[in-house]
């Protein structure tokens, strides 16, 4: 089993969800997060005062899948989240040692 974490631009969330649904992936956890990479934030004007915004709003998507479905999911996320501009995000893939469904006690692939 693998865990995929993807950090994307907020306005691409619906596109990514639809792309994952098209390849048969429905379950995911979505969080609103803030961060920056090469973008390094931007300057904003508020009530006449200029200030630096270092952390930009992003969306973090997390999913746990069987090994065979990982490449398909990564491709779906990458193609649907890409704008071609800096700050499109990142995708990370981790190994998962164990998963347990709390309600039934099912484990590993049966739990996901």
What can you tell me about this protein's structure?
By secondary structure, the protein is α+β, with helices and mostly antiparallel strands. The protein contains 2 helices and 6 strands, in the order βαββββαβ. A hairpin with a 2-residue loop joins strand 3 (42-46) and strand 4. The termini are close together. The mean pLDDT is 91.
Q: How would you concisely characterize the structure shown here?
A:
The protein is 20% helix and 37% strand.
Task: Work out the strand percent.
Answer: 35-45%
Order of helices and strands: EHEEEEHE
Counting DSSP E segments of at least 2 residues, the number of strands comes to 6
What is the helical fraction, as a range of percent? Answer: 10-25%
Tally of separate helices: 2
Characterize the largest beta sheet: strand count, sense, and whether it forms a barrel: 4 strands, antiparallel
Give the spatial strand order of the biggest sheet.
2-5-1-6
Assembly type of the shown chains?
single chain
Look at the structure and give the mean pLDDT: 91
Q: Could you tell me the radius of gyration in angstroms?
A: 17 Å
| Low-confidence residue ranges | none
Shape: elongated
Distance between the termini: 9 Å
Helix/strand structural class: alpha+beta
Topology:
Elements: E1 2-8, H1 13-22, E2 29-35, E3 42-46, E4 49-53, E5 56-65, H2 70-81, E6 89-95
Antiparallel strand pairs: 1-5, 1-6, 2-5, 3-4
Keywords:
single chain, 112 residues, alpha+beta, two-stranded antiparallel sheet, 37% strand, elongated
